Amino acid sequence: MSKITSVRTQDVRFPTSLELDGSDAVNVDPDYSSAYVVISTDSGESGHGFVFTCGRGNEIVTAAIRSYGQLLVGRNIDELIGDLGEASRRLVHDSQLRWLGPEKGVSHMACGALVNALWDLRAKREKKPLWLLLSEMPAEEVVSVIDFTHIQNALTPSDALDLLSRGASGKEARIAQLQLEGFPAYTTTPGWLGYSDEKLVRLSRQAVADGFGMIKLKVGGDLADDRRRMRLAREAVGSQVKISIDANQRWEAQEAIDWVNELAEFDPWWIEEPTSTDDILGHAQIRRAVAPVKVATGEAVANRIVFKQLLQAEAIDVMQIDSTRVAGVNENVANLLLAAKFEIPVCPHAGGVGLCELVQHFSFFDYAAVSGTMDNRMIEFVDHLHEHFTEPVRVKNGRYQAPRLPGTSAQMHSASRDRWEFPAGAGWLEITQGAAVGSGHNS
Amino acid sequence: MSKITSVRTQDVRFPTSLELDGSDAVNVDPDYSSAYVVISTDSGESGHGFVFTCGRGNEIVTAAIRSYGQLLVGRNIDELIGDLGEASRRLVHDSQLRWLGPEKGVSHMACGALVNALWDLRAKREKKPLWLLLSEMPAEEVVSVIDFTHIQNALTPSDALDLLSRGASGKEARIAQLQLEGFPAYTTTPGWLGYSDEKLVRLSRQAVADGFGMIKLKVGGDLADDRRRMRLAREAVGSQVKISIDANQRWEAQEAIDWVNELAEFDPWWIEEPTSTDDILGHAQIRRAVAPVKVATGEAVANRIVFKQLLQAEAIDVMQIDSTRVAGVNENVANLLLAAKFEIPVCPHAGGVGLCELVQHFSFFDYAAVSGTMDNRMIEFVDHLHEHFTEPVRVKNGRYQAPRLPGTSAQMHSASRDRWEFPAGAGWLEITQGAAVGSGHNS
């Protein structure tokens, strides 16, 4: 029997605000950050997990992971990774901690980091990348990790088993195909609000040359700017490449409708986060009014209960799961099955730091063992900060290549973590001593 | 000009789990706690605020308040309390911190504690209790504190101004009436799940003798138990006193419908939190199926955007605002006006520690300056831990008496805070040295 001996956290931040990478109508100056955790055992194993944040407040999430982590220290790791459904419920439904959400925000994301670290350890023990572990797992065990609380009027354990049984047909062939060909990606690299028109056009053309079938533009700052940028992008990529637009929750419902209709002539594929992701009914109102432009959301959707309602209300055309917003692998498996039940494609949110690495596993699993299709399915790709990971994503010809190393791909090099630990890592000391970063930092 | 010189926090916890006060179907062993904050200025003024939690995790919220508090240190207090709308937006919409919610969970509650502390300071400076400050404030200023982001398809600034203008008629007379007669209360004291039948009956009779028009029972643990307890309570209070029931989000939607219908013969007034408060559509489904039993929720509703939809979807009959769940006074003013717009009564959630003290102000303001009616409106009352506050609530003949001291009534005696500071306050040292508290504590 082996035990968890430590749950160690680090507040890791990259000074991305210096470059305006990642700038949009709401997130104007993010420092892509990671509230990072390593679970270690007395058998010498370890599992890595993290929560992505935009900088300030990363210390709050780190503190939350540390607090929840106390519920795991000393526990039998074999039992925990042998019943990951129970492991997740212990954290998420802790009778006192539950009040902090319930199941949303800082506390929920902290649970997710720990749950994901347990999956990383399990996958490493089984010597499989997460997507393959999930794809080859017996359907009954997949169902057992799902928390069906408050979603049973949309998805029951029996529904989930049916979907996975249906998904089992042809699975081996799809796994082989994924290993050979990968999974389609789209890129957000050209479209940040902080970029010049020249850079937008150059990066849009580059995206087409690199084989991407879709690019995405941030919108919502200024309508005239958006119309100009959208026109330039459409000219740059031609009519066959999709362009989606993303407002990062900038608008009121009616404002979203009016704005999107002003951009309709440039044929946007989807409008992402047109309004608050809490606003299920608002999304439904917008969707009815902007069709055939699709409505997408999810990177800030707090949990499976909100996703359930977005589907029930016919409020979205595309579900955008995020790998560190919800309570880990378990809840994202629930989200994938909800999407499959309602026959809505999942196009994961990624970018930031580490999100591409982690989230790709869900699309690979979805294709291998759940939906069985790549139709209108793509994983977001942003080419930032991958060099800090032990298995960086590999995107070739517009496709994510299948992760091969055991684990969840979430492991960051310890040298990167130490250098960018906030506020006293060497990288930050160089910056703050050089006074290169403005007053926005929480130093 | 005076400045904020410090934002000091304390992690204060009361060992209520020793007595099973506050036990329900979900919160089985709460230690009522307060993530407490004091904002101090160089002019010698101070404002107090807090977030209520159930024990473990209080340190996370305390850390979050400390982090957000850094955005206030050094700032001009006159400007902050002169434009409390802007003060709140600076915290809630901080470009990096916003990712942690947005507007939900730990980060949102932390903003609320700071916003409330600013209101406490403002009310003390104006030498008025909060409810009177709000009631006598020009309508334009009340509107200016509201964040209309993502609620404008239900409530516009112009709507808010209309509601307040209508509420101004007869306001002075209602203020005088409130000062004389107070505002109706109901009591949850008899109904905790951990209490014996004998204690339930005794406390139910006592509630009637004390002049309460409604009692509330926790339900959702076991149906046979609930039927027996509901029968006993109904016999104890007679047919003229209301009994409401509260499941603390225990059920799936269909389960809620079935369970409530099994209790219908005992004439429950409302069913509170039948399912996840995130589940707007689930509440609507339940409400249609359990009428004429009313549906109530709110203590865990993350923000005004969720309340807006509960109203739009006709999912609730009663809005239960909580004083420390949302981003402070500002957001609860928005909630009151949303309820007024949809003509739904507000019956605030209270209990815990300090929630009665703080939340009463909203009902007094609502009667004085918004809805102008007490019909079907009551403030929850639980007789716990009031002795720790400098102006404890006064409930007489089943009615909250109007707060009189300047401020928000949120100020806890420093001796209480120091004694119950976790984990090293004298009270906790006595308990842990006596080993009287079980393994559940995060020590």
Looking at this protein, list some descriptive labels:
Enolase-like, domain 1; homodimer; 14% strand; TIM Barrel; three-stranded antiparallel sheet; 2 domains; 443 residues; alpha/beta; 12 strands; disordered C terminus
Describe, in short, the structure shown:
In chain A, 42% of the residues lie in helices and 14% in strands. By secondary structure, chain A is α/β, with parallel strands linked by helices. In chain A, the strands form 2 sheets. In chain A, strands 4, 5, 6, 7, 8, 9, 10, 11 and 12 form a 9-stranded mixed β-sheet that branches.
Walk me through what this model shows:
The structure is a homodimer of 443-residue chains. Chain A is of the alpha/beta class. Chain A has 2 domains: 4-142, Enolase-like, domain 1 (2-Layer Sandwich); 171-400, Alpha-Beta Barrel (TIM Barrel). In chain A, 42% of the residues lie in helices and 14% in strands. Chain A contains 17 helices and 12 strands. In chain A, strands 4, 5, 6, 7, 8, 9, 10, 11 and 12 form a 9-stranded mixed β-sheet that branches. A 3-stranded antiparallel β-sheet of chain A has the order 1-2-3. The N and C termini of chain A lie far apart (43 Å). The model of chain A is unreliable at 436-443 (pLDDT under 50). Chains A and B meet through helix 1, helix 4, helix 12 and helix 13 of A and helix 1, helix 4, helix 12 and helix 13 of B.
